[in-house]
Amino acid sequence: MYGKCGSMRDALAVFTSVAQHDVITWNTLIACYILHKEYSKALEAYTKMQEDGTEPDDVTFVSMLQVCSSLMLLVYGMLIHACIILAGINMDIYVNSCLFEMYVKCESFEDGDFVRGSSQRKDTTISNLTPTMNSMGSQDEELTSFLLQESLAGSVNGCCKLLKACSIMNALDIGRHVHCNVVETVCDFDMQVGNALVDMYAKCGSIQDAYSVLCKMQKRDAVTWTTLISGSGHYMDYQFAVQCYEEMVKEGIDPVETTYVCLLTACSRAGEWKEGCRYFESMMKQHELTPISDHFYCMIDLFGRSGKLIEADDILQTIPLSCPGVVAYRTFLNHCKSHKN
């Protein structure tokens, strides 16, 4: 009601106040964002919906196709198409027309013809698919056929774009299909593809799969290791983040600024302020890296989370004038508030 009446703030307040969100609640929020042409927020809501553990339905997918059409996001649209197949959604006239419209608006006319031809040839075949991951059967063949048919899937850059979309949309199942059915059969397993796979698995929370890919790569760089450290820290696996850092250094790969941002973030979330201090010092002395603003923000957060407000204030006072101070002061004040100081 609030969303349709133009008050997104009230609509969001009602949504937030609800203890548990089901697919209808999420669909309503996404529809409101689309109604107000806030397409980026609709994408964010879709991602959060999956993180919340709510399975999208046909209404969700149709809404996301509308977003992809409006923003001309071809790669995301292809990913939604793959999700529709994987979920066994009834490919009725409405869903097919939305798919066709998305491809046409994204100027991918060949893919539009593929959708139109597929719906005419297969009629109700897809609607009878059973969404069971343990025995994919026809579903697996349908998804594999779709991924291999797409022009994106036939090149290294195409695979990387598709994997990037999977990581952003938290689509682990689709990412695994790209890995198994496209990357290993079509693309050379080079560092670019390897890094994209590590990124996809890490951001989707499958850290061990990310590490497994990393171990199989013939060449690794700072990006490979940093991506894994970032994912480990994000999913609260501090010990593994440290392990990856140590292996990286032992391998002779020099950490970069971003590596330490991810490592310090992992230390902060784990409450390991002493280790964080050690790595901060190592960054400057052993690896001769000059701290940037993000490093200072991490250190303030590190001390703040551990209740070391005096130490956090000391870092705050040493930040160079060239670094933006708003984030630093906001972080510091938030920790002061949480510790009632």
Automatic annotation (TrEMBL):
This protein's UniProt keywords: Membrane, Repeat, Transmembrane, Transmembrane helix
Gene3D superfamilies, per the entry: Tetratricopeptide repeat domain
Coiled coil: none
Entries under InterPro entries matching the protein: PPR_At4g14850-like_plant (IPR046960), PPR_rpt (IPR002885), TPR-like_helical_dom_sf (IPR011990)
Keyword hit for S-adenosyl-L-methionine: no
Transmembrane segments: 73-95
Signal peptide from the UniProt entry: none
Gene Ontology terms describing biological process: RNA modification; system development
PPR repeats: 22-56, 221-255, 256-291
Molecular function via GO: RNA binding
PANTHER family: DYW DOMAIN-CONTAINING PROTEIN, PENTATRICOPEPTIDE REPEAT-CONTAINING PROTEIN
Protein's recorded name: Pentatricopeptide repeat-containing protein
Taxonomic source organism: Ceratopteris richardii (Triangle waterfern)
